[in-house]
Inverse folding.
């Protein structure tokens, strides 16, 4: 069954970049969100079992989404994809339960490495 | 007053995304330089008349004494400018973070040069990688020290009627420190800028 995948980023270009970088033949059903509020709503509806999340966004930023997901115990595996590459930013998102952090700009290779590392490409 | 942006929504989005990534990398350098955590806002993109540019810097409004340092950079071979504007209180914070004593204006200028190198070097390195065309720079120039907003001079942009300004306000967490970084694209770069952006999409 297709995995519900959420791509949450305020930039249309960044959302497309992530979608283009997904592994071939990965069975996912993609939902897009352009800010944290939309993203969180999608996760609550079960559309984000797997989430690629930006940090710097209007309405609610990525940290806000992580905090809500953590506090509400929502079912979402979150990988942060951000241009904010401070080690402290990485530490913070991991503390809030994100499974990994990918530096922008994203690429097919970077995504595949991380997904393989967590066994997320196995059927 | 802002003018209508001469970019379509996709081009604006693309410019915002690449500057967000470049300025985000620069935030890490600033964080290392100051040993702090830097809060990173979304870049603000506007088109402004060059004579209104300084007055329109909302982020630095309310400070009596500001200093600025500018640097020419070649975006796809064309002259563009980076401008950093910082208030006196934040210069003092910066000196404290970096363990320096500011005895005179020479010491302040040195600190501004180092701040400019810290932020701009990383920003342009990353920008060049993304557009696959290295960004070269001239030496930075201190434009003004301890002056009110309306007295900041920047002759280099006076030749351009209007320009596209990408503004980011760096804040340090739990500290009043803040400084503005602006990337300024004069009107004669618009055609090349939109070509580069279209290629990236």
């Amino acid at each position: 069954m297709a995995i519900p995948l959420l791509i949450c980023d305020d930039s249309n270009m960044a959302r497309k970049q992530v979608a283009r970088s997904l592994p071939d033949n990965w069975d996912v059903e993609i939902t897009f969100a352009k800010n944290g509020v939309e993203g969180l709503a999608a996760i609550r509806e079960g559309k984000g079992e797997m989430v690629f999340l930006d940090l710097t966004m209007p309405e609610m930023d990525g940290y806000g989404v992580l905090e809500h997901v953590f506090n509400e115990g929502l079912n979402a595996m979150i990988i942060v994809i951000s241009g904010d590459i401070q080690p402290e930013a990485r530490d913070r998102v991991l503390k809030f339960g994100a499974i990994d952090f990918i530096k922008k700009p994203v690429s097919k290779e970077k995504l595949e490495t991380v997904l393989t590392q967590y066994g997320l490409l196995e059927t | 007053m802002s003018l209508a942006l001469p970019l379509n929504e996709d081009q604006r989005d693309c410019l915002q995304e690449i500057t967000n990534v470049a300025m985000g990398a620069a935030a890490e350098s600033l964080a290392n330089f100051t040993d702090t955590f830097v809060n990173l806002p979304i870049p603000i993109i506007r088109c402004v008349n060059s004579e209104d540019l300084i007055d329109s810097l909302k982020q630095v409004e309310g400070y009596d004494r500001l200093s600025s340092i500018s640097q020419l950079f070649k975006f796809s071979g064309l002259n563009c400018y980076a401008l950093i504007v910082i208030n006196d209180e934040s210069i003092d914070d910066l000196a404290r973070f970096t363990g320096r004593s500011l005895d005179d204006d020479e010491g302040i200028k040195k600190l501004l040069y180092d701040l400019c190198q810290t932020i701009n070097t990383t920003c342009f390195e990353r920008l060049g990688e993304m557009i696959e065309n290295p960004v070269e720079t001239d030496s930075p120039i201190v434009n003004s020290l301890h002056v009110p907003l309306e007295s900041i001079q920047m002759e280099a942009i006076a030749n351009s009627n209007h320009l596209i300004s990408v503004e980011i306000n760096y804040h340090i967490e739990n500290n009043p420190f803040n400084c503005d970084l602006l990337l300024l694209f004069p009107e004669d770069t618009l055609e090349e800028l939109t070509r580069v952006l279209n290629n990236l999409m």
Notes: The beta strands of chain A are 3-8, 28-33, 50-53, 77-82, 100-103.
